[in-house]
Amino acid sequence: MITQQIQLHSRPEGLPTPNNFQLTEQNLPSIQTGEFLVKNLWMSVDPYMRGRMMDRKSYIPPFQIGEVLEGGAIGEVIESQHPDFPVGSKVTSMLGWRSHFISQGQEITRLPDVDIDPSHFLGVLGMPGMTAWTGLNHIAALQKGETLFVSAAAGAVGSVACQIGKLMGARVIASVGSDEKAEHLRALGIDEVINYKTCGDLNTALATAAPEGIDVYFENVGAEHLSAALNNMKDHGRIAVCGMIAQYNDTIPTPGPSNLAQIIAKKLKIEGFIVFEHWAHYPEFTSLMGQWLASGNIEAEQTIYHGLEQAPNAFLGLFEGKNKGKMLVKLSD
Amino acid sequence: MITQQIQLHSRPEGLPTPNNFQLTEQNLPSIQTGEFLVKNLWMSVDPYMRGRMMDRKSYIPPFQIGEVLEGGAIGEVIESQHPDFPVGSKVTSMLGWRSHFISQGQEITRLPDVDIDPSHFLGVLGMPGMTAWTGLNHIAALQKGETLFVSAAAGAVGSVACQIGKLMGARVIASVGSDEKAEHLRALGIDEVINYKTCGDLNTALATAAPEGIDVYFENVGAEHLSAALNNMKDHGRIAVCGMIAQYNDTIPTPGPSNLAQIIAKKLKIEGFIVFEHWAHYPEFTSLMGQWLASGNIEAEQTIYHGLEQAPNAFLGLFEGKNKGKMLVKLSD
Question: What number does CATH give the domain B127-276?
Answer without folding.
Answer: 3.40.50.720
